[in-house]
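Translate structure to sequence.
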């Protein structure tokens, strides 16, 4: 058994030596053309990544956050916030922060268009705008210029 182990060990060391020698010979044969092509590909990938980052930044700056104040009954209101996901904000964390800040219920739900939005119980639209302007908690990094407040009244039913 010891003889087999010594033989395996010798084979392994020979393989490692052969592999490193082969690697050195391959590196030595790398031509200037291949090196130039490799540099060109690397520069192309860097430029592509930079362009992607710029496009993402433009998308963030063009995105709008809509805060709707929706009337449920005569004196009850619900505040709906749509567009936070464009800024990379986790909606569940935002809902939890708003619920604890205003001591109301808040949840993530889908609006009629099928997009996620944060729904907060109560008339807190302008307080949410203040939080976004201050950049508190999860709501950091949102430009205040991209926030729009909309008031939606319930239509009166025909009697």
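Result:
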């Amino acid at each position: 058994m010891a003889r087999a182990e010594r033989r395996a060990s010798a084979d392994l060391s020979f393989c490692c030596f052969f592999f490193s020698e082969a690697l050195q010979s391959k590196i030595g044969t790398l031509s200037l053309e291949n090196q130039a092509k490799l540099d060109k590909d690397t520069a192309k990938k860097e430029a592509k990544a930079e362009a992607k980052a710029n496009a993402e930044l433009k998308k963030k700056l063009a995105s709008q956050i809509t805060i709707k104040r929706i009337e449920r009954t005569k004196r009850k209101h619900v505040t709906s916030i749509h567009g936070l996901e464009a800024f990379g904000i986790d909606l569940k964390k935002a809902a939890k922060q708003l619920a604890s800040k205003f001591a109301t219920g808040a949840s993530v739900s889908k609006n009629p268009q099928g997009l996620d939005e944060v729904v907060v119980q109560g008339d807190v639209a302008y307080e949410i705008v203040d939080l976004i302007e201050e950049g508190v908690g999860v709501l950091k990094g949102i430009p205040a210029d991209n926030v729009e407040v909309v008031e939606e009244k319930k239509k009166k039913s025909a009697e």
